[in-house]
Predict the structure.
Amino acid sequence: MSESETETCVCIKTVPVRRSRRATEQVPRKSGSKRTSISSTLRKEPPAQTLSGNMTSGNILTLCLWICLLYCCYTVTQGELAVDCCLSVSYKPIPAQVVRGYMRQDKGNGCDHSAVVFITRKNIRLCAPPEAAWVKNLISNLNNLLKKCKAKKFQGRKCDELKSVMFGNSVQ
């Protein structure tokens, strides 16, 4: 180099700049220059969000509306469940040869009366009082027939009908 040419030396010094609470970064800086804030030139990272900081009033309102909607849908579907109940019972005895099964109706499970519902061969449901002697006798006969049919693995017409009624595979 000649004397007419002047040497210009730029010295670079690293200065730590705080970007976030957790990390620091080394940013080069010219020596002799004014100390200026370079935070305005750097893109600031958003603070770490917590659950409470993330829930705005709009989000809370939307959540409450969804909960109310789901509750209303649940309540409506519960009201549409139809319960088939005996409104009254007949004290007149039912002939055993027409009965192919029975079900018990308990008071309080959506029904006002306790009853025994006998199902006939023509799939007619007849309600009878559970405390009557002829009802207890008919139930006993049906239970004995059920035991015999289980031993025979439900072979035969009577057993087939009894199985369909007693185990819910209703034959129409």
User: Anything to note?
Assistant: The first helix runs from residue 51 to 54.
